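Forwarding the complex inputs:
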Amino acid sequence: MTSRHDQEFADYIAVRLEALRRLAFLLCQDWHRADDLAQAAAIKAYTHWARAERADNTDAYVNAILVREFLHERRTGWARRVRLTEPPEIMTSAADQDGSLDLRAAVAALPPRQRSVLVLRFYCDLTVYQTADALGCTTGTVKSQTAKALDSLRRAMGGAAQAGPGGNPATHVIGIPAAEGTEFHA
Amino acid sequence: MLEQSLRKLFQQQAEQAPPPGRVTVAQVLRQGRLRRRRHRIGAVGAPVLAASAALAVALSGALPSGILGRTGPQAVGYGRLAGGAFDPSYLAIMFGWLPKDTVVAGGMTSPAHEQIAANPTRRENWALNAYPRDVCHAITAERRFRCWPGMFPAHSTISITGRGPLIEGHGSWWLSGSSPGTAPRWLGLAWTYAPHAWAIVQNAFGLSGAATAVRIARGAEFGQHIAFRFASRFTSLPRGWQIIGLDFSGDYDAANGIPAGVYLAEDYNIADPGTISQATLQQGNFGTTSPDVPYISVNPVITGTQHCVVVNGTKTIAVTTRHVTIHGYRFVSQQQTPKHGHVQSYLSLCGGNVDGLTVNVDELAAGVHPHLALPPLQVMERLQLLGANPADWVTNPLP
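Prediction (whole assembly, two chains):
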């Protein structure tokens, strides 16, 4: 560390890093990628710290960095570091009888932008205006993306309900969709 | 109903016990510093490098050798950066006294500026800065203190708030620095340690600690010749290429296995100072016509292996990717040309056989027709990695 800038940032990010990880996980549904995203967002926040700490809500500012980083990575995604092993499968448990796994799978299958909108609105509890600000789009886009996402979820959940809770054993083992791209091992 | 289920799901997912995180604050800070340095050098303006290079060209030979830093055979070998400018390969300043429980955290060197910072264990963050002759000026009539562009954050103002005590027989000035629209944010004490050459002791954390600042200033040591340690070295380089700046870590990294008193050069830049034109420097717009500046980071402190994957990119930017094996290490070489015309070339180390060593060789070149005189691949081919054992590190990475 070489300055007050670093110290202030370190104090801030030490407290916020875990929350960033969790938010990143909700966006990408993968803890490994969540680590990468949280780190990328934190580094970007570091380089823009002067602006971030002047923001009305520093947490919201950094969250927005993370969400945009997620979307940017998905959009351009020309290079990134990822795991070399497949993500662990999520097994159903006896306590998981409320269809949350189906919902989880449906959320994971949403396009990134729609998933981001849902996370910002229903996890971060942002308003339409705040969500639009975080995503850098219009309020109309937020509304339409929300509507489309909810519609997709309803359709997906409806399909799952029709299959029945125990109808197809395959529905009880839900793998997180593998990352796009070509992995290579050393 | 669905909205409630979503809230519940997100809450459950967020509250579930996550696996141990791989990201640490120290790691973020290190990478952030690398990124910030990259920005400094890249297209946005590169103030520090511009000022450094400006000094290299404009003041070459104009400064009496020996007023700063080291003298002797090494300085002669430094070519166009000889004279009063610092040799970034060595640390010329050192704290002679520091508050209790405070250790050297690290710092940076360039021909026009050296800084060594002490990591605070309390709410003070002390940095000792030194500048060669004529880089900074005290304009007492205006109560302003000015340095070359890039020495301080853009648009910041440094005010002289009063006369300070004598430091080694020289007058001093109290400074306060701030950014536009903010209250004074840091305290400084500036004095000339050599004719027209200024030093500043700075509490970057606030306006307190005047007595401590005076004591640090009176203990400051100049003309040191402290070698850094490099975890890599070049087997060859084009004639004239020099280290033009580096960031180093200090005793703060003792917990990472680096012996006390060993200053590790975490990342550094090499360039041929002769390729930087005077016109570019005078315009203060380094980014538009600058030559390429390879950026080399060989950091054994950041542990873990980088695993890389190439993702199909969109067609909005041109990306060229190829895989290469150099010295038995597998790399992915990527070059992208964003819309704004800058070329960025990256060489990333990928593979499982280099745990404990992070290597990046980035090259940022700017302009409509950038010339990549020493592309990252060639840098890597000429670079010998020395591993994570401090005993294997060298004090001079140049051939």
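Confidence is low (pLDDT under 50) at residues 75-97, 160-186 of chain A.
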